[in-house]
């Protein structure tokens, strides 16, 4: 009798790209936050980057759903993606309210979590759902 085999679910590549895009946009936001201190263009770039970062968080949720349901992957990435979207929503609210004492540490946390998620997605097969063959 053969043991459970894991197959690479469809949509995993899109999921990895979505996590990578989110991580890059969060890094861009950190760079433009530093530019806010020294340049007049920093505010515009940070504003534009915030919209792109929020959009990339939505793409991450979409990719997680597509990798799960039609793609055959596990549902856990959806939990991670919706958590990131919730953090991004809080981050946008804190930024609009000009609360840097909370906005900056949350941004650092989000970048760290996104980097961990990207590393996990690139190095493990944890996104795959076990497939039982009879």
Write the layout of secondary structure elements.
Blueprint: E1 5-6, H1 12-35, H2 41-68, H3 76-96, H4 100-123, E2 130-131
Antiparallel strand pairs: 1-2
Helix pairs in contact: 1-2, 1-4, 2-3, 3-4
Q: What's the rounded overall pLDDT mean?
A: 86
Helix content: over 70%
Number of helical regions: 4
What gap, in angstroms, lies between the N and C termini?
Answer: 7 Å
The unreliable regions are: none
Which geometry do the CA atoms define? elongated
The radius of gyration over CA amounts to 17 Å
Major sheet size, sense and barrel closure:
2 strands, antiparallel
Estimate what percentage of residues fall within beta strands: under 5%
Determine the structural class based on helices, strands and strand pairing. Answer: mainly alpha
- Topology, number of strands: 2
**Secondary-structure element sequence?**
EHHHHE
| Adjacency order of strands in the biggest sheet | 1-2
């Amino acid at each position: 009798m053969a043991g459970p085999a894991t197959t690479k679910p469809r949509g995993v590549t899109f999921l990895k790209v979505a996590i990578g895009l989110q991580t890059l946009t969060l890094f861009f936001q950190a760079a433009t936050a530093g530019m806010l201190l020294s340049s007049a263009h920093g505010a515009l770039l940070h504003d534009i980057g915030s919209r792109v970062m929020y959009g990339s968080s939505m793409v991450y949720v979409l990719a997680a759903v597509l990798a799960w349901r039609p793609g055959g992957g596990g549902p856990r990435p959806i939990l991670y993606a919706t958590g990131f979207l919730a953090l991004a929503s809080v981050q946008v609210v804190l930024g609009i309210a000009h609360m840097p004492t909370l906005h900056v540490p949350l941004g650092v946390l989000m970048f760290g979590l996104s980097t961990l998620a990207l590393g996990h997605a690139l190095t493990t097969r944890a996104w795959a759902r076990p497939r039982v063959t009879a």
